[in-house]
């Protein structure tokens, strides 16, 4: 299973949420093998414990999976706010690149929204993938990805590679040679790397791995 959500200590018949209620979810990349998904989630849970001890809520995005828990019910609620973005320093002014990029983004948006919430696409030397959280309807997934694709273009402009993570969906594209290990299926080792995504622009630049985590230390924050 690539997606799962849960609630603990919450009385759904009571309109007032219990102070001790916890809501959470995890989700793996749509192309991740079950065994690698399990390893990624275990790694994510361990890293949340280290990065956000004693927190009321936390969010962690890894290369292969996503883990979040909160003291309030966020499940199934559309959130298109930008949580993280990364644009490559290298850019392109090639008309063909933009045409290929836009084809990939359009295909990801349409395919993920109409399918199972995950889509891999390529056109020429441009590749990409997009995914929605599993609790979104097809309509909300399409809406989220439309916002995500729009923000990729507006925030990263002519970047040769870019990632944008919204509250409930994300999209990534890159030109061949600008993203290390550009196969869209992550290896076991890649799946557990914390993502701040990044794009190696030239051979001398190694992949940048940054912990993307949000810790909420107090109730209401």
UniProtKB/TrEMBL annotation:
Membrane topology note: Single-pass type I membrane protein
Similarity field: Belongs to the cysteine-rich repeat secretory protein family. Plasmodesmata-located proteins (PDLD) subfamily.
GO cellular component: plasma membrane; plasmodesma
Residue intervals of the Gnk2-homologous domain: 1-74, 79-178
PROSITE patterns: GNK2
This protein's UniProt keywords: Cell junction, Disulfide bond, Host-virus interaction, Membrane, Repeat, Signal, Transmembrane, Transmembrane helix
One matching Pfam family: Stress-antifung
Main location per the UniProt record: other
Name used for this protein in its record: Cysteine-rich repeat secretory protein 15 isoform X1
Transmembrane segments: 195-215
Subcellular locations according to the entry: Cell junction, Plasmodesma; Cell membrane
